[in-house]
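A quick aside before the break. I want you to see a complete sequence-to-structure record at least once, exactly as it would be stored in a machine-readable document. Don't worry about memorizing anything.
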Amino acid sequence: MNGLGLLPRAFEPLPLGQVTPAGWLRSQLQIQADGLTGHLHEFWPDIARSQWIGGDVEGWERGPYWLDGLVPLAHLLEDRRLQDVASFWVDRILASQHADGWLGPIHDERFGYPYDPWPLFIVLKALSQHHEATGDARILPAMARLFSKLDTLLRDRPLRSWARYRWADLLLSVHWLYERTGEPWLLDLGATIQEQGYDWRAQFRTFPYWDKVHRIERDQSTHGVNVAMALKAYGVWSRQSSDPTDRAVPLRMLALLDRYHGQATGMFSCDEHLAGRSPSQGSELCAVVEAMYSLEVLLATIGEPALADRLERLAYNALPATLTPDVWAHQYDQQVNQVACRVSDRHVWTSNGPEANVYGLQPNFPCCTANLHQGWPKFVAHLWMRSPDDGLAAIAYAPCAVRTTVREVGVSVDVETEYPFDGRIQITVHADEPVQFPLHLRVPAWAEGARLRNPDGDTTTLLPGTFAIIDREWRGETRVTLDLPMSIRAERRFNDAVSLSRGPLLLALQIGEAWRQIGGELPAADWEVLPTTEWAYALDIDPADPASTLEVERRPLVGGPFSPETAPLRVHTRGRHVPGWGLERDTAAAPPPVSPVHSREPLEPFVLLPYGATGLRIAEIPVLAPDSPADR
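That is the input. The structure line, written in tokens, reads:
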């Protein structure tokens, strides 16, 4: 501990509610509110009868997980019904505080151990968001009493099990309260938490997991959700340690995960343990939303622009792909090359079960049913942040509105765009009275030739992978326009297959989908998805110049964009069927044949869709050999 409190963040997150969704993004959040998030409490026993609100069912992590996504969703949509539900839960949780400061149930052995603090990590995140949105005066003293209890408890019963591996989430809340109260004992508690937590830094210093983790060697350190949550750990701790080597740990973790387990979505494989680079292995939905949150925290903490590129990659690809378009069902595992979603004992998963990739209410295990809800709302809340020079920073792009104060002046920022489907972003700044401050606009690393049209009409070419800064006096209403060219890029992947991207969007071969209800009750039913068209193709493209043989088609953006029917982007290309490339067991495409691939089959046209709009797809695609025969 440095004795000087906490180092300042690179960017300061705005309180919940100061950034709100607009355009297609608001529609997406409304779909979520109309789906599982807004209705689980009405029928799912783990929420409806949770011990956290006085019921008789699960009193461990599931209610807190759901609340952690419900609170921001309710306030971002200004949805009175959902705000009332969230407030009911907050009231019950606060009323459950014991005389010694403990919050909520004292757990039975089914869910951990009696004073298992892990579920409280999630409760604290929900309570802090509720406080930011409402100013509820009960939250700070309730958190202080709980931390006092934990301070005593951890002396005799150090962190273990899930809490030991997920310690960064507790440290975040300790720091959150310290910034509001200045109580020095909270930093002593923070040091205890870090000391008792698992040493992720050491694991990734000598990273031993170079391939798919086998069942006999799996443990909590290879558990995908634990790893996703740990990405932020040393970024968070660096604010207290003041050690620059701690700030470097998250980037090393990401680099090693990319190297040995990376997927084209920007995610790593984890089904449910680290599973190698094959695009047929899965990634758990819980890990996707936790990785997003870790990146949001790291962006605030260390401010590295590349983290925002990855955040958008997850938000616009991995997140929507694992949800049905109406958000009434989800997968436990998604695959980059996903050609069948069926219940089968013959599967490729590291440790998950036979229904891990079907869409449903609670496939495989119900943690994702409870935890999926934080993905979109927290992404919205972190689109813009406050910069250290007392300005505003665009961290990620989507249609949204910001309402805040800068240097004691009311300021609004409206972002009009169809990003990520289009690269034009129009930003309108309104100041209640003249005020000087900088506007930081992130330029993605892929955006070669990005241009900014300034308020005075001049156009500036921007450097990719940086923040462009406009520092001026803002008067009345001022408009700037950012143009991010979205040329199609090819990246070599597993077995030299390619993934194709346009802007932050990963493209995937469209496969005909037959959805068959296999259980449950509508609208929260369970579904198998089977292919109705061929999928084993090799692309007829030049990876060095993919755009030369691809035709981009834009369609109107109406409602939710993440379904085959409503996707506002289609890319037309062609390829040849690859005989012999088939299934691996029953639930996965075999690894793609090593490119370049020879095929004498006729050239055929096919369509690439945004990955997030597909239920079945091939997104790491083999490439034809240059000497394949001409079409006949």
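Two observations worth writing down. The chain has a mean pLDDT of 95. Residues 488-618 form one domain. We'll return to this after the break.
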